[in-house]
Each structure stands twice: as C-alpha cells, then as structure tokens.
Amino acid sequence: MTPAPASILAATAPAKSAEPATPANPAASQPQRVQVKAVAPAAPGSSRAKIDSLAGDPLALPAAQPSPAESRSRKINTLITIAALLTIVIGAGVVYVPRWIKNMGQNGTGARPADNPDAHVAEYVVGPVLPNSNPVWSLRPDVPAQPLRLANDFRLTIAAQPPLRFNPASLILAAPPSPFAAIASTPDSDRGAAETISIWNLTTQSRTAQFRLAQHLAFPAISRDGEYYAGQAWEESSKSNRVEIWSTSRGQLAHAISNPGPSAIATDVVIGFPVEDQVAILGVDKLQVWDLKTKAIAREIPLPPRSIDTHVAASARFNLVAVADSRRLYLVDLAEGKVVGPAPIPEALASHRNRLSLQAIEFSPDGGDVGLVFDNRQSARRIAVFDVATGRLKEIHTPAAPVYRGGPDFQWLSGGNGFLVGAGILIDRATSAQAGQIYGDLPDEGLGGVLAGLLGDDRALIAWDKHPKSLVLRSIPVAREKASWLKVSIVSASAVKYDQLACIGREFGNSSGTNSALLQNGRFIDRSQVFLVVETAFAAALADDAPASVALRPDQFALIADGQARAPIGTLTPEGVFSVERPEYEFRKGDSVAPRRSIVFPCSGRERSIALRIGNAFQALDLPRDFSPAPAPTVIPSIAERLPGSAFSAENDTQAVVVDLKSARLGTFEAEPAIADQAALRVTYSPADSWLLTVTFDLTVNAARIASRTVRPGAPRLGLLLADGTHIRPAVQFPGPLPETLKAGEKIQQTCLFVLMNDPGRSRTFRLTYDNAPVAIVKPDTPTARSVP
User: Fold this and answer.
1) Cross-strand bridge partners of residue 475
2) Distance (Å, rounded) from C-alpha 771 to C-alpha 719?
3) DSSP type of residue 446
4) Nearest Cα to 330, choosing from 274, 364, 285?
5) What confidence tier does 20 reach under pLDDT thresholds 50, 70, 90?
6) 771: left (phi over 0), alpha (psi -120 to 50) or beta
7) Burial of 260 per CB tally in 10 Å (0-12, 13-18, 19+)
8) What separation in angstroms does the CA of 226 have from each of 309, 552, 592?
C-alpha cells in the first residue's frame, strides 16, 4: 500500500448542515410512486434552523457545569497525578540515559543499530486512512440491496445475427436483483451506425425484445422489469442534452427530455427507474422524476449546477440519491423531496500533479455507506467512503493497484468488504491492498472476455465475442488470492543509491523505448529524494492447492524503510535505464528459474534501516552510504535522410494539416513527465556534442486519416528540413508520436526535439515537415550557449 499523503491525514472536519434531514419512514423501504410534495427549507438564522442544528448535533448542546465540591476534588487528583508522572520520568532517565550515551559511542554516528525488519513491519499498520470528521446530517439509510443470483455454472450462448456484430463492452445489467440485461450490436461494416439493442432475461436465458435506436445513446440504463431502455445524446442544433426513453416491447421511443446547456454532459444523466413507469434524471441543475405514462414531471428537486465530473447513484429502493463531484457530496431524500448536505470532500483526494477527478459513485450492498472513486487514468487512484446516516467521511483508500481502463469504474464486493475497480482489480477494504484480479481470459472459453460486473455470492459476469460465431455470457467465481499459495524466498538483495538515472522510454517522449539520440538525465523534483535501486534475485514455491500459475503483482514488492512500506516506482533495464514498468513476475508450477530485478524506490538517503519485502519474504539490506555513478546509456545518432533541394523553398502544404508555430528555441530542454504517483521527476534533455532545437506548435487536421479493416495508415511522420536538403526526424516528441487515425478538424499541440549536428548559426531558417511535405517555417531564438549534458 502506498502511504497516504499527510494532507489526506489532516482532512478538516466538514461544516454542519443547515438543516439535518428527518429520518425516513421505515415503510418507505419498498418502491413507491413519487408524489409531488413541496418542502420549504428553514431560513438561515431563523429559530427553526437553530433548533434543527442543535438537534442534529449533540456536541452543540451546552455542557453540564460541575459543582464546587467536584471542582476541588478534580484539582487534588490532578496534583497527585502530576507528582506520580514526574517520579516515573526521573526514574526512567536514571536507567536509560546512560545506556543511550553508551550506544552513541559504539555507533559513532548516534544512529540506532539496525533492528529486525520484521519488527518494523509489525509496527506498520497497513490499511485505510480513517479521517476524524464530524457528522454532517442525520438520515436513515435505505434497505440492503439484494444481489442478482445466477447458477454457478451459468452460461448463455447468444447466436450471431449477421451482418450485426455484438459489442461485449456494451452489456449493461438492470438494478439488482433484476435478471434483465441489454447488449448492443452494429453492422460489422459500419461500427459507427446506430445500435440494435437486445434485451435478455438471464434467469430464463430468453430474449424478450430487440429494437433499433435512432441514434447512439451514451450512459444507458434499463428498468428492472426490462420494459424501458434510456440513454443520452447531445443535440448540436438545439444545444441541449437529449434523454431518450425507449419502450423495449414496442421498439419505439416512449419519451424524450431536453436539458439545455452550453455543452454535452460528459457523465451520466439517467439515474435509473424508481418504479417501472418512472425515470429519474439529473440535468444541469435539478433532479427530475418523470412519469412515462402521463409524460409529466412527478418530482423536481433543485440542486447546485453540475460540474464536469458530477456523478450520481441511487440506493437499493431508490429512497436516496447520491450526487457528488470532486468537491462535495449531497444526498437527496427522494420521497421527501429534501436535499441534505453538502459533505465536503477533502482537496487532498483530488490533488495531484495530474489532478484526479471523480469517476464513479455507488452505495454499499448494506446501504450504510457510499463509495466514491477518484483517479487520473494514469497513475493514481483514491477511494473515499462516506457514512450515509451521518455524512461523515469514514475511510480513504490509496491502493497501489494499477489504473486500468475498461470494466466497471467502481463496484462494491458482496458483503461490502472490498471494491472492484477498472479491469477486474479487487481491492481489500481492510488493508487497501490489491486482493486479486478477475481475468477475462479462460483456457476453456478463450481470450478477450470483457467484465460486465459483479453478481451475488462473489461471482462475476463476463462476455466473450466469438464473431463470426456467437456471443457468450458466463458466470465465473471471484476468487481472492490466498497468502498460502505462494511462498517466496529472496536469494540475494543489495541496495545502490543514485542521485540521477537515465530516463529513456516512451513515457519520456521517445518513439522507441530502448535508446535515444539524447542524454536524458532524470532527477526528483523534490531534491530531498534520491533513487534507491535494489538488485535482487528471488524464487517461489507454489502450494499443492494453488492454481497452475500465480502472479507476484507490483504491490507485492515493497521497501520497508524505518518501518514504513514504500511502493516501487519502476525498474532498471539491463542497460541501466530507468523504466516506469513496475516489478512483477508470474510463477508456474515446475518453474526452477530465479528471476532477477533491479527495483527502483524513492528514498531520502537518511533512512536508519531498510529491508526488501517480496510477497511473504523479507530481507534486511545494508544502507548504501555514497552515491554510485549512473550507467551511461547508449546514444544513437539522430535519424536523417535527404529530400530534394526544391522542397526547402516550396510553399507550405496545407492540404493535410495547418500548423501554427508557437515557439522554437535552441538549448537544453527540461520536462516533467507524468509517470508515477509518488515520483515527480524532472528530465533534462541534451545532446553530447551538438545542438538541440525544441519546436512547439499547434497542428489542425484538414484531411482525416482513417484506418480501414485492411489498411493501416501508419503514424504521420514529422521532421525538420535543413536548407541543404538534410531531413531530420525528431529524437523526442511530447506528448508522444501523433496517432495513426486523425479526424478532420482535430487540433493537437505537439512539441518536437531535433538534434542538429552542425552549428545552426550557419542557417537560422528551417522547415517543419509533415509526411515529408513542408508545413511551417521555423526560425529559432538566438542560442546563448552550446547544449551540453
């Protein structure tokens, strides 16, 4: 587990709600048709608001005053206690101070001797951060959710329907315990066409409806009885977010709702179906419940305007709706038409060099908690758990699990003892550590299975597209890993300290991950941090009851520094080049190879004891005192070719792209690439004996590049053309090489680094090229000095 930032530990207590909610009627646990009922909030500062505030917060009530006799007795007891403590402190000093002085003389530096690393690990409690925040409201949670239950050997084969092809990633489930599911298909020759939707009852394994949409609908939802399918689309002509609700049995549009706004809403608008013939939506600034039979609003509740990362979720019986973004959380009592909150969300949950945003929200299976997941889709993920009854922030999890795309953004495991995030990553709630992973590749089913979500009894539903044959839905067990499966032994381990490392790879702007025409030296932005590289060889034995193969994941490698576990930020390649690929290895029964890894950790260099942990194995390490010289990487010449001399004086070719040059400068270049959550690096780019030209520009696409089923266009080739016809390819590109497919009108900002072997003072004008055609004139700033490493 990655230790949580101190700013998260110091999360401030949220402010009290102006009007705590009245506990819900227990009878409201069953689905109810929403009735319009206006609820007037208490006016700020009014007597009612003050009474409600005191009633909702016992800490705000006046404290009872002690009697004079009680005060005298407390003073006497306090004096006796102080005298006893002074006696204990003086006695301890007589015994332990001489021992401490003696140890200082033996150690020379005054540092304590290296202790048993197992003792430090025992002192380090792995688990979620438990913020000490105050209650915000008083509310009765909804009833527990009943999971969908399918047979353990459930397998549904859906026959192919040429020319349609199913999209397994489109499979959605109705709110549990409903057995209904929907899946989309499109013509194989035109995957951008409007989808055909198939509705299936998973319990009876029968298709109940099939219809074709008029347009693509994002963030779809299906009613519990399978009678309605809803989603959203942006209408440019009316500047509104259009919600369409389709009758699945009739295959017709049942209702459409327009939500005017300045732009398309990028998160879910359809909340769900409170009852079979009602739909709830979250527009720009209000929550609405529509009756699908009368086409009238049954409930409208104002809310603060939504943000770009606003997400919404409903409880099991739709009594409560949670609405949140990266700053605050509200709960809506739908039956009462009342909004409670907000519960403030600590800034530390989203704070990062690459800021995190809210990705999903969901109520726990027992209805008592609501979980929010934040991530930046690159390197960091955090999970916050709020108490539904009080609005108190209970837990903050910072799992060291990889941030993968695909699969559900966030789901609770059955029983509420863990989370499912991304492409099947299981997080244990008690420890915040990864507890396993759901794989969509099964030997008896094939590759490419897509995780649809969790089922009851710790099972998951996965879909396999076997085009041109069938689509297969299958229930598989969600097995947590057992510590007894894998017994690791560390064969050897030693630590080396570096103040800088060679950083060459795609994450540092190179199209090739092995070498570069530049020296690229990376240091931590926080100069109090240095690189600690642990060279280790390790082996493992698999237990008889273990699967055929068991993987050691990146989070199972850790440095125990002064009792604190630190996650690795990458590894060194055999050439001594830093890579952000974290260590992992898959052991198979019968393997006898002891893999070797050079694992990179951040450290201060002032640690008093360090140890390596791999799985369940520990080994103490000697502290490196001095820095070791970083190995010099292999530097290849810059890629150059010749173009006809007439190309340099040709007009800019704007048929494919238009380039707007922003800057061009000669000299050393520095970048801060986004890599790992706890590793903020600054990388210096400089050639050994030449000039470095950095060109930044905006590129607007005029002619689209589209890949067909048989032809791949290849990535566009950028270059720098000199007056003598020398044509140089960029050594480094930020944020990376241009994509193979480009849409007309697409705008991209690009930075290219070119290595010039000759003195640019001879020719101060260059041409930027796109697919060997000149597209811009480049005149760099006057260099102040030659680029040197």
Assistant:
1) 461
2) 8
3) B
4) 285
5) very low
6) left
7) exposed
8) 29, 42, 54
Q: Which uninterrupted H or E stretch holds 98?
A: helix 68-107
- What amino acid is encoded at 526 in this protein? D
Q: Which residues contact 91 (CB under 8 A, 6 or more apart)?
A: none
Question: Is 421 strand, coil or helix?
Answer: strand
What is the distance between the alpha carbons of residues 182 and 778, in angstroms, rounded to a whole number?
54
Q: Are 454 and 475 in contact (CB under 8 A)?
A: no
Among 450, 433, 432, CA closest to 441: 450
**Euclidean distance between CA atoms 135 and 155, whole angstroms:** 46
Task: Please report, for residues 222, 320, 344, the alpha-carbon distance to residue 330 in angstroms, rounded to integers and kept in the order given.
Answer: 24, 10, 9
β-pair partners for 123: none
CB atoms within 10 A of CB 231: 24
Whole-angstrom Cα distance, residue 667 to residue 784? Answer: 8
**Among candidate residues 66, 242, 236, 117, the one with its CA nearest the CA of residue 559:** 117
**pLDDT digits 0-9 by tens, 717-758:** 999 999 889 999 999 998 888 888 888 888 999 999 999 877
Contact criterion met (CB below 8 Å) for 752 and 732:
yes
What are the structure tokens assigned to 273, written together? 């179906």
Torsion sign, CA atoms 258, 264, 265, 267: positive
The region, left, alpha or beta by phi > 0 then psi within -120 to 50, assigned to residue 306 is beta
- What is the identity of the amino acid at 748? I
**Whole-number Å distance between alpha carbons of 752 and 509:** 9
Q: Does the pTM exceed 0.85?
A: no
Q: What is the pLDDT of residues 288-308, one digit of tens each?
A: 999 999 999 999 999 999 999
> 131: number of CA atoms within 13 Å, CB side?
31
Helices (H) and strands (E) in the chain, counts: 4, 53
CB 233 within 8 A of CB 226: no
CA–CA gap between residue 653 and residue 73 (Å, rounded): 93
pLDDT of residue 500: 93
DSSP state of 316: T
Please tell me the distance from the alpha carbon of residue 675 to that of residue 722, in angstroms, as a whole number: 34
Q: What's phi and psi for 209, nearest 5 deg?
A: -165, 155
Provide CB contacts within 8 A for 115, sequence distance 6+.
609
Q: 434 with 423: CB under 8 angstroms?
A: no
- Interatomic CA distance for residues 636 and 180, integer angstroms: 59
In sequence order, what E strands does 155-285 have?
Answer: 155-158, 164-166, 172-173, 180-187, 196-201, 206-212, 218-222, 228-235, 240-247, 252-260, 270-272, 278-282
